[in-house]
Design brief:
The protein has 166 residues and is mainly beta. Helices cover 11% and strands 47% of the residues. Strands 1-2-4-5-6-7-9-10 form an eight-stranded antiparallel barrel. A hairpin with a 6-residue loop joins β9 and β10. The chain starts with a helix and ends in a 9-residue tail after the last strand.
Length: 166
């Protein structure tokens, strides 16, 4: 009986930890069947120019987050696995948009280890009926203070099972 109680207690503690930690893998993008491609042009760092995404991207689920404070409620998801064609470089990103919005609120994209971002909605589209986020010659600026920029065009897919408004 004591052994059964200890086993049940250990299982309960493990379950609580997994739930508290998000199940151990919910924040990591997982394989999808959805193709995506990003084309980088006009990069201050010329080696970043090129096509990223030669197959299906890895995606997280879209989550709706309502943080405390002045940040608005956001729909967020991440992707990775956008391999640069003809290079070992990769791209990954963190995409954020407001529920029911038709453009992005904020985007963070990393190309070959260098992060770029924008908090402007221009040149982006959230196309729910196609399960896609689209970029049209979107200018992003490096987050490291170097003022390096690049332009991105392309499509990042979203998983279809999204929360209401996302």
């Amino acid at each position: 009986m004591k052994t059964l109680f200890k086993t049940c207690a250990a299982l309960a503690a493990t379950s609580v930890l997994l739930v508290a930690c998000g199940g151990g893998n919910d924040d990591d993008p997982s394989p999808s069947n959805e193709p995506g491609v990003l084309t980088v042009t006009g990069a201050s760092l010329e080696g970043l120019n090129g096509v990223y995404g030669n197959g299906a991207l890895n995606l997280t689920d879209v989550d709706k987050k309502n943080p405390i404070g002045s940040t608005p409620e956001l729909c967020t998801f991440k992707f990775d696995g956008a391999n640069k064609v003809g290079s070992p470089a990769t791209a990954f990103g963190d995409i954020r948009y407001r529920p029911d919005a038709t453009s992005l609120h904020q985007v963070f994209l990393t190309f070959d280890g260098k992060e770029y971002a924008s908090g402007e909605p221009a040149d982006t589209a959230v196309v729910r009926e196609s399960d896609q986020v689209r970029f049209t010659n979107k200018t992003l600026t490096a987050t490291d203070g170097s003022n390096n920029t690049l332009r991105v065009s392309g499509i990042v897919p979203m998983r279809p099972n999204r929360p209401l408004g996302c």
